[in-house]
User: Which sequence fits this backbone?
């Protein structure tokens, strides 16, 4: 991991940006007015500014946790020895990814979540597929469990959890927190700049402008999408709107996400529940990966592909992929939503054989076959018989 991180590090290094002509100050900066900031005692005035201070791992108020000690996604990679026992608090993407990774490295892993399912923002059956995989791999799951307190003892770090019955005790060598993100707003003196914010971060409009029209914000500090690729896309919008008088809108973005477990779970657009909540009449089409030759060859037959589309116009509104390579394939469906394509158009895309992405073409073909009414079949049968 350290070797790979070292190879990636130059992409975001001080040296790279300095070579591009960027003045860099590695220190805490804060606003001193609506048009200036201060760094290391030096006042810097600006005509436009972008706040991109990101977010950090949230730390829940669990009694005894600070004394027991914990890891986050920022500190876990500094470990030099494998924990024999690991407790992961949180069943979201980061918690699931690291739980499976450490289990496969040899740790005895227990995942604790106050939600009764893994990945609560994804489709329930996709989460259920991952839950079954975790149980097959021996990962302990305490779902719908509230952490009462943490302790440190001679036998290790202890969590006392409550699942609506007598308290249960879990012992481990390390505790990893993965319960969400907290925006980095401390120390910025946003009040001095006239920038409104709350516990979720800096408030922005659809053009990423803050309450101070000269200051924009992008990334985790102001977005509900806490993903690197989302931060990059929002950063592009902020850059265009600040420097080039742009009118780009964040709401125009089609942002996918992928949880990098095995299997991967990728999603884009609306879920069925979101469509119903918004009063959108959708149809849903799901195909198992067992119908695709590549899925059979790879033994990856438990996954599936799902598309939600408008019943009236057939326009693709959302999709979920569950497979070993879901993250590599979801981009095709992102483009389909962005270009307002209809479900039947997916069948016109030719894929190399054999690939898992071929299931996307099958979704289009299946939707077209579904449009063939019984009377149409009878009519075509008669025509073909007559022509013969």
Assistant:
């Amino acid at each position: 991991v350290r070797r790979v991180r070292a190879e990636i590090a130059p992409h975001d290094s001080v040296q790279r940006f300095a070579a591009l002509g960027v003045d860099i100050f590695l220190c805490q900066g804060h606003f001193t007015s609506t048009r200036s900031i201060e760094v290391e005692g030096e006042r810097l005035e600006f005509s436009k500014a972008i706040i991109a201070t990101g977010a950090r791992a949230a730390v829940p108020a669990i009694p005894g946790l600070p004394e027991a000690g914990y890891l986050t996604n920022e500190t876990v990679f500094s470990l030099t020895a494998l924990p024999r026992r690991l407790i992961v608090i949180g069943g979201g993407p980061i918690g699931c990814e690291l739980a499976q990774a450490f289990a496969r490295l040899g740790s005895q892993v227990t995942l604790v979540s106050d939600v009764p399912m893994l990945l609560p923002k994804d489709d329930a059956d996709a989460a259920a597929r991952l839950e079954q995989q975790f149980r097959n791999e021996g990962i302990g799951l305490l779902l719908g469990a509230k952490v009462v307190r943490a302790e440190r003892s001679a036998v290790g770090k202890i969590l006392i959890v409550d699942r609506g019955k007598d308290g249960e005790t879990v012992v481990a060598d390390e505790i990893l927190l993965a319960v969400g993100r907290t925006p980095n707003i401390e120390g910025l003196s946003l009040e001095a700049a006239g920038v409104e914010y709350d516990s979720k971060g800096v408030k922005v409009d659809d053009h990423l402008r803050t309450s101070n029209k000269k200051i924009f914000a992008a990334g985790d500090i102001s977005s509900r999408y806490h993903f690197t690729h989302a931060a990059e896309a929002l950063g592009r919008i902020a850059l265009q709107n600040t420097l080039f008088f742009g009118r780009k809108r964040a709401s125009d973005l089609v942002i996918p996400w992928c949880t990098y477990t095995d299997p991967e779970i990728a999603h884009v657009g609306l879920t069925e529940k979101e469509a119903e909540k918004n009063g959108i009449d959708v149809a849903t089409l799901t195909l198992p990966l067992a119908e695709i030759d590549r899925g059979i060859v790879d033994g990856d037959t438990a996954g599936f592909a799902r598309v939600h589309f408008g019943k009236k116009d057939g326009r693709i509104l959302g999709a979920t992929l569950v497979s070993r390579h879901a993250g590599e394939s979801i981009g095709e469906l992102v483009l389909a939503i962005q270009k307002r394509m209809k479900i039947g158009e997916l069948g016109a895309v030719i894929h190399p054989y054999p690939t898992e992405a071929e299931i996307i073409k099958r979704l289009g073909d299946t939707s077209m076959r579904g449009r063939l009414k019984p009377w149409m079949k009878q009519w075509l049968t008669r025509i073909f018989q007559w022509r013969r």
Summary: The first strand starts at residue 29 and ends at 33.
